[in-house]
Amino acid sequence: MRFPLRWMLDHGSAVLRYVRQPRRDQLIAQLPTATALAFRLLLTYPEDTVGAWINTHCLAVAPETLVSEALERLRQSPESVGPYLYVVDADRRLQGMAAMADLLRAGRGATVAQTMQPARHRLSARASLAAAHQHQGWKEYHALPVLQCRPAGRGAAPRPPTPPASTSARRSASRVRPDRLTGAAGAVAPR
User: Fold this and answer.
1) Digitized pLDDT (tens) for each residue of the chain, 191 residues in all
2) Cα separations (Å) of 133 from 81, 139, 178?
3) 130-164 CB burial, b ≥16 within 10 A, e <16
4) One-letter-per-residue 3-state SS of 70-130
5) Which of 12, 47, 49, 156 sits in a 20 to 30 Å window from 148, CA-based?
6) Pick from 115, 30, 5, 32: nearest CA to 71
7) Which residues of 91-119 are buried (b: 16+ CB within 10 A; e: fewer)?
8) Which of 143, 152, 139, 157 minimizes the C-alpha distance to 49?
9) Are the CB atoms for 130 and 168 separated by under 8 Å?
10) Neighbours of 6 (CB within 10 A)
11) What fold is seen in the domain 60-115?
């Protein structure tokens, strides 16, 4: 059975959670390298955490990137399109977010830094889905950056579903050190 790339990127790791070893490793080994790495990253997080559900194919660029260059990169990577472009430094530390609408309205020669806003709300990749679901940032944004405290990939996740009652809310979604961008969590429906 073949699945569309977009579906595979969004749901593949969730499906793989239910495949037993060694079959899971065999399936992952058949994927393109970037997708395999992304799925391996997602599978390292417990199922009830934000990190398990991020889309690792969101685009992040340096602040000095020209808006025209960033838009071209987005055109060449349709799986990376989301409501925001994430701006990171050379160490992948989050600098801010640029809304797609602002990028499209930017003047000729503008840099991404000129269109970005500070990322006032962040989620920890280790945060529980319960804590992430209650995060105040959803009132303001359709997507929130997901950070982790050690070097890793990047990504974006849909807004966490209402977690089951058994999910622990002890892992706070708001206590995040401004470390490396792992991904982003995005709302799939208006509140």
Assistant:
1) 566 656 666 678 888 999 999 999 999 999 889 889 889 989 999 999 999 988 777 789 999 999 999 999 988 876 666 788 999 999 889 999 999 999 999 998 999 999 999 989 999 999 999 999 999 999 998 888 998 755 444 444 444 544 433 333 334 444 444 467 777 776 433 33
2) 23, 11, 20
3) bbbbebebbeebbbbbbbbeeebbbbbbbbbeebe
4) HHHHHHHCHHHCCCEEEEECCCCEEEEEEEHHHHHHCCCCCEHHHHCECCCCCEECCCEHH
5) 12
6) 115
7) ebebbbbbbeebbeebeeebbbbebbeeb
8) 157
9) yes
10) 12
11) CBS-domain (3.10.580)
What amino acid occupies position 172?
A: S
Residue ranges of the domains in the chain?
5-44, 60-115, 123-186
Structure-token match 């602040």, residue found: 63
C-alpha 136/C-alpha 133 separation (Å) is 9
Q: Of how many residues is the chain composed?
A: 191
Tokens for 45, please give them.
């997080």
